[in-house]
Specification:
Oligomer: single chain
Largest sheet: 6 strands, mixed
Strand order of the largest sheet: 5-6-7-3-8-9
Number of helices: 9
Shape: globular
Radius of gyration: 19 Å
Helix content: 25-40%
Number of strands: 9
Order of helices and strands: EHEEHEEHHHHEHEHEEH
C-alpha cells in the first residue's frame, strides 16, 4: 500500500436517472421538496478495487458505457464516489474532456492562463512556458483567435500542451490521443513516454488496443461498471474480445 500512488478501494458510483421532464430549476426544487421526483438508480461503478504504483502506465479498457470515464473522473476528483474511497498521492493532470475549463469566447492565449489556473499552475510558470506551449501545439498563427473557431484537433493540441508543460505525478488521459493527425499523436506519445521515464504515473483510456499497447503493459477491463480483470494488456484484450 505504501508504494501505491493511486489506491481505489471498494468504489461505487451511483447516478439518479429521473423519470420525468422538469422544465425549470424552480419546478424541480418544488417537486423535490414535495418528494414528487421519481428516479431510477444507475450504478456506473460497483465495488472497484485496484492500486497503481509510481511510474506505472495502466490502461482502462471496455465497451461504451462500461464505466471507464466515470472511473477516471473519480480518480481525478471530478466525481465523488457514492461508496468507497480513492486515495491519490501527488499532483494530477487530468485530460478527460476536450475543452473542459476553456472559455469559448477567449483567445487561445487567454485560455492557456485560464486552463492553467484551473490545473493549479502559477501564472509565472505559464508565462515562462508559453513558447513551449505554442511550439508543441503548433498553433502559432492561432493564439490570438477565439477558440470557438477551433476544430476538435486544435482543442486537443492546446489542451495537451497546457496539461503537460510540467511533469505531474499522475497523468489521466481519456481518448484525447485519438483526435488530431497521426504526426501530432506521435508527438503526444513521445511526450508521455518522456514523462513516464521521469516517474509520472499514467491512467489511459482508449478504444484502440494498439494505443494502449504503445504506452501500457497492464490493463484493467471494465464491463457494465464492474471490474472483470486486471492483468497484462494482451491477456486483458483476449478476455475483452470474448465479452
Amino acid at each position: 500500500m505504501s508504494d501505491s500512488i493511486i489506491e481505489v478501494s471498494d468504489v461505487s458510483v451511483m447516478f439518479r436517472l429521473y423519470r420525468e421532464r422538469v422544465d425549470s430549476l424552480k419546478e424541480f426544487m418544488i417537486k423535490k421538496m414535495k418528494r414528487q421526483i421519481a428516479y431510477d438508480e444507475f450504478w456506473a461503478l460497483q465495488n472497484i478495487n485496484f492500486q497503481v504504483g509510481k511510474g506505472e502506465a495502466v490502461g482502462l479498457v471496455g465497451k461504451n458505457g462500461s464505466g471507464k470515464s466515470t472511473l477516471l473522473k473519480t480518480v481525478a476528483g471530478v466525481l465523488k464516489p457514492t461508496k468507497g474511497a480513492v486515495h491519490v498521492k501527488g499532483s494530477v493532470a487530468p485530460m478527460i474532456e476536450l475543452g473542459a475549463g476553456f472559455d469559448m469566447d477567449l483567445t487561445a492565449t487567454e485560455n492557456v492562463f485560464l486552463n492553467g489556473a484551473i490545473l493549479g499552475y502559477p501564472k509565472e510558470m505559464l508565462e515562462e512556458n508559453m513558447q513551449n506551449i505554442v511550439d508543441f501545439s503548433e498553433l502559432k498563427d492561432f493564439m490570438d483567435v477565439p477558440i470557438k473557431n477551433f476544430s476538435s484537433g486544435m482543442f486537443a493540441r492546446l489542451g495537451f500542451a497546457v496539461a503537460t508543460i510540467y511533469t505531474p505525478d499522475i497523468l489521466i488521459v481519456d481518448e484525447i490521443l485519438s483526435v488530431g493527425d497521426w504526426q501530432f499523436q506521435a508527438k503526444c506519445h513521445r511526450r508521455i513516454h518522456e514523462m513516464l521515464e521521469r516517474g509520472t504515473t499514467l491512467l489511459f483510456v482508449s478504444h484502440s488496443i494498439e494505443e494502449v499497447k504503445k504506452v501500457c503493459s497492464r490493463a484493467i477491463l471494465l464491463n457494465h461498471g464492474q471490474m472483470l480483470m486486471d492483468a497484462d494488456v494482451d491477456k486483458v484484450w483476449e478476455r475483452y474480445n470474448k465479452i
